[in-house]
Amino acid sequence: MVMPAATATDLIVTITEEIRVNAPLEVTFDALLEELGKAHAVDGDKPMPMKLEAWPGGRWYRDLGDDNGHLWGHVQAIKRPTLLEFTGPLFMSFAAANNVQYRLAPVDGGTLITFKHSAMGVIPEEQRAGMLKGWADWHERVRKGAERAARS
Question: Is the pTM of this model over 0.85?
Fold first, then answer.
């Protein structure tokens, strides 16, 4: 079976988001690392066992135990507390490449996280549809975690 050729627009996904956090820069960066790693939960706080090795080349993966899991990516760049960048397949088990950037900057009263996810590849429409909500939910947990830590 021969499929029609995809256009560049069909093969590219770009998601950007700005997250305002009422917490200091360092606290927000720590909360981001925590949420991307062991604290991550989905579907009403159901744990999703993620591991993040927060150094250049470090892995970001879902750890299912007994040497099972799913590689999400590698740390491409990290500059504490202002930059965290990944490259890899993320949650996709099909032909796609991804780059995820978190840039953090101090702003009056807290921190601004600028998020960008760029993906290129054969990404099914149902996967594209869930990406915006998935990232937004994840970022809301980062914001809440940072603000909770700042109050402590």
Answer: yes
